[in-house]
Amino acid sequence: MTRVVVADDQPVVLEGFTTILGATSDLEVVGTARDGVELVTLVAATRPDVALVDVRMPRLDGIAATARVRAAHPGTHVIVLTTFDLDEYVTRALEAGASGFLLKDVPAARLVEGVRLVAAGALLLGPRVARHLLADVDAAPRREVPGVDRLTPREREVLTVVAGGLSNAEVAAKLGIGEQTVKTHVSELLRKLARRDRAQLVVAAYEAGVVVPG
Amino acid sequence: MTRVVVADDQPVVLEGFTTILGATSDLEVVGTARDGVELVTLVAATRPDVALVDVRMPRLDGIAATARVRAAHPGTHVIVLTTFDLDEYVTRALEAGASGFLLKDVPAARLVEGVRLVAAGALLLGPRVARHLLADVDAAPRREVPGVDRLTPREREVLTVVAGGLSNAEVAAKLGIGEQTVKTHVSELLRKLARRDRAQLVVAAYEAGVVVPG
DNA sequence: AGGGTCCTCCCTCCTGCGGGGGAGGGTCCC
DNA sequence: GGGACCCTCCCCCGCAGGAGGGAGGACCCT
Fold first, then answer.
1. B103-140: per-residue pLDDT in tens?
2. Which nucleotides of D are covered by protein (CB under 7 A)?
3. Per-residue pLDDT averaged across A25-44, rounded?
4. What does the angle CA A137 – CA A143 – CA A147 come to, to the nearest 5 degrees?
């Protein structure tokens, strides 16, 4: 059962969302709030899986409320509700820890699906927001690790898994190949990246940005 | 009715996804492909709403196939299928125009929900991918590593050096102590941080922010 | 049709690593 | 004085990890 709270200053919106979510067997609305302050208190009291939060609210707006909720209760994923798909809210909301956006006139089916996916930890964005975000990805800070560019796709994949701290046998199981094959890939990684053992391989992976901490 | 095609070189995957999607009333699998070239032809012929595409395929890989599909038919939204939700394919796939990622062992319900949302134009990312993309936006979210606060000063020091990829003998030389002593500290680190080997210790160090890449 | 790359898997050999013990000396504080 | 830590060092032992080979099949490009 996924537990949800809804925050909006418009009673009609509150009513609508509660009705839709309450009609779904695996979703449950455990509370509603009419402003940001109420929301923060409500989340602290009910510890919901998902919070639907309007951007525009009295006393404490949706962005600030999202930041407080995320800071105090990381287990609660926030979906920001907007009337229009305004880009300027998007970045700030994401920085505040929001997991997704929905328009207030979203079809019932999509609302339900979105809540479920966000509860599972997914990030849910509209198409325009996506492009906006991708611009930042290109600026990802990576250190030059000599040899990473000469890795084959499979080797890169193995590196990622090894960098998670898995043993050869575990890597083999995860990739569905033999342990001997993993050893071959690892040896090749050590040679190409000029490292000595898998611990140094983990270091190289973090330096190269193949994995990101956090 | 949402029309879907599936592309994967593994018949079992093809079969599984087709069965799941076919059992849903508003989804319809209108074709399958075993490699990228087949996929491009299939999309041109059927104009589906969503294409589920494996990253690893013969002849034309999933990334390249995605780029061609998106260029020729922007109305078709692509979901990339991966074994992991965080690997070197993610960024390239998004640049190629993919709308989302799903693990091959995704639960049926989430698969169906994901397909519907992507068909509607949403961007769908897993939790780890989301963090990856938000790495530059989000302000360095240091993960809580249980036990790191119970380390003695010397242990913390050893951890930092070990996280540099040094062997026990090298750590000993660097700290001016015996190798046996280093082993004792390392064993203690493994125990307190609940890790198995020094590779996992390196991971823990990066997660805890004891060392910082870049 | 052939050369090159990649992925896959097999073998032997040996070292470094980590588990599981024990033990002495140092400081600090009760 | 007697704990309670912390740092230091020692032994034995089993094993995963890595070196150094070889080999077959699939694919790609020319």
1. 777 777 778 888 887 886 677 776 555 555 554 333 33
2. 5-11, 16-23, 26-28
3. 88
4. 110
Give all domains of chain A, ordered by start, each with its CATH number. Answer: 2-137 (3.40.50.2300), 148-208 (1.10.10.10)
Residue B106 vs residue B45, higher pLDDT: B45
In which residue are the tokens 């290109």 written? Answer: A138
- In this structure, what are the phi and psi dihedrals at residue A12, rounded to the nearest 5 degrees? -65, -35
- For chain A, percent of residues with pLDDT exceeding 90: 22
Q: CA dist B156 to B184, B198, B208, Å? A: 13, 14, 11
Backbone angles phi, psi at A176, to 5 degrees: 70, 30
Among chain A residues 131-190, those with CB within 7 Å of any atom of strand D? 167-169, 183-184, 186-187, 190
- Work out whether the CA dihedral B108, B113, B117, B122 comes out positive or negative: negative
- The shortest CB-CB distance from A206 to any of B137, B197, B206 is to B206
Q: Compute the count of residue pairs across chains A and B with CB atoms less than 8 Å apart.
A: 158
Q: Which nucleotide is nearest to B197 (CA to C1')?
A: C18
